[in-house]
Amino acid sequence: MPTFQLCCASELDPAEPDGDSIAYKLAENFHERDAAFRLVYHAYTRAGLIEDNPHEMRVTPYQLLDTTDVIVAVCDGEVISTVSLVCDGDLGLPMEGIYGDEVARYRRRGIRVAEVSSLADRRSQLSRTLPVFVPLMRLMVQAARYRGVEELLVAVHPRHARFYQRFLSFEAVGAEKSYPLVRNNPAVALSLDFARLDRVRPVNYETFFGAPLAEEQLVGRPMSDRERRWFAPAAEYGGGFTLVGPGDEARLRNGAAVA
């Protein structure tokens, strides 16, 4: 579940903070993925959302798949912000552990969905976090559309839902529930319908879609088999994820889980 401490602003400003030279990209090597997973781990443990683990990484089974993109903001060779785009695939989506029925309805309607996951930032000052968040999310939503995603889903803490709804035009699609994977913190399910977004063109539409990114920025960078073997133990540690495929809604409802 995304853990950014987001503030509200009347206008989103994608400018780079303090003149830093920041690159926004799909992670393409071991160093960038390792740094992203460690950043999420430290952000989540700091927020009290997960327990410590000996790997000091927050890796999910979904992030080992070619259908997931780890997106990073890199400043002077250091990953300072990250988010993962989990496209619906062999394991389904992370949020199905509590929103299985909601996701199943999209599949029955033939809608291609993906989930925003593992959102974290190194910076503690909100004034510096937001300018990094905007171009990071711009890359993420454009990558989603490039992959044919029609609706983007996210499970967020209720106190962050208003930001996603007001400034990113997400809409509520699931009631508040307790999320076991983040120590039973509350979550609500939101959806970003790209077709609706194109019709209504909300105030920040141009910020995210006005300038199409180059195709080379959007092409997937799959993890190597060697990387998968390296990260697999961290993904298995303390698992608890309910792993389902698009045809396994019944198994989800029966509570089957893979550690």
Report on the architecture of this protein:
The protein is an alpha+beta fold. It has a single domain (21-209), classed as 3-Layer(aba) Sandwich (Aminopeptidase), CATH 3.40.630.30. Helices cover 36% and strands 22% of the residues. The chain contains nine helices and seven strands. Strands 1-2-3-4-5-7-6 form a seven-stranded mixed sheet, sandwiched between helices. The radius of gyration is 17 Å and the shape is globular. It starts with 21 loop residues before the first strand and ends in a 6-residue tail after the last helix.
Task: Map the helices and strands.
Blueprint lengths: L21 E5 L3 H17 L21 E8 L2 E10 L8 H13 L4 E9 L4 H21 L4 E6 L1 H10 L3 E9 L5 E9 H7 L4 H5 L5 H4 L6 H12 L12 H5 L6
Parallel strand pairs: 4-5
Antiparallel strand pairs: 1-2, 2-3, 3-4, 5-7, 6-7
> Can you tell me the number of structural domains?
1
Rounded mean pLDDT score: 84
Helix content bin: 25-40%
Radius of gyration (Å) = 17 Å
Q: Which class in CATH terms?
A: Alpha Beta
> What global shape is seen?
globular
Keywords:
disordered N terminus; 22% strand; single chain; disordered C terminus; seven-stranded mixed β-sheet; globular; 9 helices; 36% helix; alpha+beta; 259 residues; Aminopeptidase
